[in-house]
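Pasting as-is:
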Amino acid sequence: MQTASHFHSFLCFSNRRNTIKPDGWMKMQTPHLKKLSRELHYAGRPRTHKSLMTVPLTRLCAIANTDDGSPPAPVLQEYTNTNHVPNSEAETFLGKWSPPRYLWRGLSVLILAGQVIIRTLKGKVHWRNTLQQLERVGPRSVGVCLLTSAFVGMAFTIQFVREFTRLGLNRSVGGVLALAFARELSPVVTSIVVAGRIGSAYAAELGTMQVSEQTDTLRVLGADPVDYLVTPRVIASCIALPFLTLMCFTLGMASSALLADSVYGISINIILDSAQRALKSWDIISAMIKSQVFGAIISVVSCAWGVTTMGGAKGVGESTTSAVVISLVGIFIADFALSYCFFQGAGDSLKNCI
């Protein structure tokens, strides 16, 4: 197509003074050109441009300005119709498929855990944030954990002491309580409380930062969000939970002994002596290992759910709830797996108490 570079032209995108007929054709009227039907030379062959044309998806018209005395220029039209144009690129298999949200969130948990491990081994840890999170998980969570453990211990004592007393096994009460608290109750109860208090806070904080694009701001400033936000929380949870578990175990045993002494008449010395005979060092170590694993599950799942939050305030609420639920499910599954590995051959601990 010949270009009229010596004409003074402008682009017109409006439908002003144009009429569209009911059959889909549009009639254009121009103030300067008397006849819109002109010959356009394309590759040396004349073509006729009609004044009635279909309404395209995109249209570009160049109308010459005849005020400067230059001869009229032809109307240039770009017609694009993609209704019947075949797709040049073949659709690939599963090209439009996107994985479900729970699937890529589960993968994000594994990826985030791997990044935390690598950065911890390399020493890329923001220690100031780690200390702040450690104070938050540890001292600020002691009260609710101890209160929960005390009442769980007393409820557990009510269920077992009366039965053992009727069977004449008063000297076995302390051993049963100690084994139950050390192997199961203390790490699981402490982890449940921390998941509800700390895990929900982690998911809500990181979710709010994600939807408000604060994590993108950290990247722009040159700080890695994993180093600055995720790794300190994971390390703090893994360090604080074993100590919380030990404190909950101590208070749970104390509350059980006091209740057994005051209500059922079993001396505190008998309970403590029975607990000392039944417990082994591995029982305490296994409780600390369990609590560390539970702390890692809580922190990694909560942080992963937080950084993958979408949808504003509603998305933050859904991520927080889902993070707590998934953390609890992960705690119970990990508790079963670890108990099966640690205590599969156990069964002789109560012999010394009889």
